[in-house]
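Fold it.
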Amino acid sequence: MLKALAPGLLFASLIFSVTAIDSGFTNCNCDDEGFWSIANILECQKVSDLLIAVAYFSIPIELLYFISCSNVPFKWVLVQFILFIVLCGLTHLLNVWTYYGPHSFQLMLALTIAKFLTALV
């Protein structure tokens, strides 16, 4: 049922976004003080990236326990999946540090390598 609804929802959201642009909706005044200020948005992104990283790091612990307690025939597949999940968490954890001040070359290089390794696995 979801496959049948997906194209319609995608088309409806596209039409809504085009009509929103045409009808003159105001842009976000994110420079103002208040809930939608840039500082608050960045703080929410920091917290969400940190929580996502914690969630990503908790999944491999459960999978390692599952591998040790059961006789799974293709353990290497689960180990590779665990590596993928850890690298996904690492990219979110490194993203937390990109919100603090100017980015150093080493931080951006580490983030790029982590994202590349995640895509490679």
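The chain has four helices and no strands.
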